[in-house]
Amino acid sequence: MRAVEGFGEFEIAPKKGYVSLRRKKQFAMLGPKTNDRFELGLNLKEQVAHPRIKAQPPGGMCQYIAALADAGEVDAALIAILRRAYDGAG
């Protein structure tokens, strides 16, 4: 969240099972995956190449999902991809 706060203005919208990060539209979501991991979902139309980010089937809320167990797994490459999603959301 510290990295995203540096991007600029956005809205944090808590939902029933996850937290939506929005500008004009949702660019990411954070939610529980298991007891010891959480999921970062990304709304991004372009191709993403990162070892922890997996493409999702068409028609879902997010095109890509990254399962994370620790804040230390959020590296510069993941932040750069999140920034592309943020920029694409308006």
Strand order across the largest sheet: 1-2-3-4-6-5
Return Rg in Å.
Answer: 12 Å
Low-confidence stretches: none
Helical residue percent band: 10-25%
Task: Report the span from N to C terminus.
Answer: 19 Å
The major β-sheet equals: 6 strands, antiparallel
Q: Helix count? A: 2
Morphology? globular
| Protein structure class | alpha+beta
* Strand fraction: 25-35%
What is the total tally of β strands? 6
Count of discrete domains: 1
Query: What is the mean predicted local confidence, pLDDT?
Result: 91
Order of helices and strands: HEEEEEEH
What does this protein look like?
The chain has 90 residues and is an alpha+beta fold. The chain has one domain. The protein is built from two helices and six strands. A six-stranded antiparallel beta sheet has the order 1-2-3-4-6-5, with helices on one face. The radius of gyration is 12 Å and the shape is globular. The two termini are 19 Å apart. The model has no long low-confidence stretch (mean pLDDT 91).
